[in-house]
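Notes on consecutive records. When two proteins share a document, each keeps its own sequence and its own token line. Never mix them. Below: protein one.
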Amino acid sequence: MHAFMKKNVYLYRVSSWLKHQLTARNTGGHGVHSPYLFEWVRMVMSDKNTYYVWDEIEEIRQEMLKDTRELEFVDYGSGGPLPTSPSKGRSANMRRVCDIAKGSLARRKEAQLLARLVGWLGRPLLTSPSRGGIGDEASEDRKGLTIVELGTSLGVTTAYLAAMDSRNKVVTYEGCPAVAEVARANWEKLGLSNIACVVGEITVDSLQFTVDSLQLAVDSLSGIDVAFIDANHTCEATLTYFNALVSRVHEKSVVVVDDIHYNADMEKAWKAICADERVTTTMDLYRMGLVFFDKHYWRKHYKMRI
């Protein structure tokens, strides 16, 4: 039965990938109606430049892929049933770091796209309610972006989010304490001191508890500029995270949902997000979806290849 289920999941993902390739566009921005989003596609999605720190982060990735240390691994985000309580129904076993890396790290292409997104949103001429001001004078004393990540794993994607500007503040959530310790060690190697890691499960018996605990942390932030959701891969959990985070976004915020075609449940969550009245524009990049909230944008849903 397990092999049969794995085969079905594999076939589902192949089918969804082929469908995306046949329906997605790669126009370099042509067909994107909003001038701002057109510029975003041209300058972020089509950007081929690299940054020196990216090589250092990729060295960490390679170390993780070769690391045979065993950790007591607690998995809350595989897409299986939600735990019935904090102490029951959770999967705890010994896992090698290299196996965790193979199964959970975002690909280099997507991680670097997130880094470009953070760099783009942090431009001096871009303003938001959480930062205030506009132009070069205001940029001199700006506080940087507030970035929230749900699903730290080994901290590689977190490093990409934090490394673009030391003034940015990244708050990341990881359910497994042992994995979080490895992530912290990786950030220390990279000299990143602008990351706060919150350790503990974010999916429990009562989803209301998840909302309350996440909301408490979110409410302590001045406002969220970028959010990256890569935690429990179920529709119910993903929508819970999304609703909690959206309560703190502003019109220039971007919420990124990872693995939107991971399974039928995640596709259901993505369709619900696209239909949300608070959302104006979405971009389906297959492996992740980007959500925009600016009321000046046309309400439109794009499918694109990167």
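Protein two starts on the next line and is unrelated to protein one.
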Amino acid sequence: MAGYFTKEANGKWSTQFYYVDYAGVRRRKRKCGFTTKREAEAWKNEFIRKAKANMDMRFETFVEEYLEMISSDIRQSTMDTKQHIIELHILPYFRGKKVTDINALDVKKWQAIIKKKGFSDTYLRTINAQLSAIFNYGVNLYNLPYNPARKAGIMGKTKSGNMGIWSIEEMEQFLSAVENKDGAYYAFKLMYWTGIRLGELLALNVGDVDLEEKKLHITKSLTRRKKQDVIDKPKTPAGNRVISLPDFIVDDMREYMGKLYGMTKNDRLFHFTKNFLEHEIKRGAKLANLKEIRVHDLRHSHASVLISNNVDIATIANRLGHENIKTTLDTYSHLFDKNAKAVANTLDKLYRPVSEEE
């Protein structure tokens, strides 16, 4: 597999060689455009290591393989986020290192560098999870002996501790403050009482609201990429769901949709931007003298209402579009703890009259 190296008429170098891939099949490869013969040879050697699933390949080559393999299984917006994190926070430190040479101490030193950048605990956890996912890919499919990121330990926290929640009374105060912004009023109210994500709200079509069956069909999500609105599939497969609507929301949607003259079932229900809604929730909170929360916190508030009213965990997970119950438990464990204490107090009150009779 020595290969041939040729200097082309334009002064660039090309390489041509045969290699055996991971399945044992002999294949031919040609690549042009290298500045030097040494550059062409280095590329050839790295390509062969990658083709053989050899963990002596450089980290950036392995990352390229990892991204290629997962690209068809995730949303483009998720892919963009992964690439951003990898290029900005991971590759600058690990580029040039062989995958097999990276150990837990290397990861610990990298974590120390990232921690100094002042990111939130949740973002630190996200960055660390991405590095761990790359090594997991090597462990599961390339026989990498172990995951050095897992051995190094977790960086950051799952929950930031700043989850904002409005009670039903606080939400009513807020809605009174923004009722002059007709469309925003209905959008905020729908989010609070259904728990849908902001992207899911913005992707809704008129036809997604079934007033007769009192159901909301979630089948897509809107994201903003390269200054363009892009309609994508929901965040997870479980994101495709049907949400039952309470009568008062059905009445609200009927009232709102009655004002949308000339709209077809394929037209978007809410023509807002994320920035507009973020601005309006801040403005409304200030007018209503409420603590400020994010638009996404309306989803958390909905979960809080369900949990505090003893709705079972499976129903909550399904309504929120979580892939599994564990996600719901991990996200809202502190709320379930509070609810558990309330249940204990209720049981205590039920028991006391019996014990007093004795």
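For the record: Residues 4-52 form one domain.
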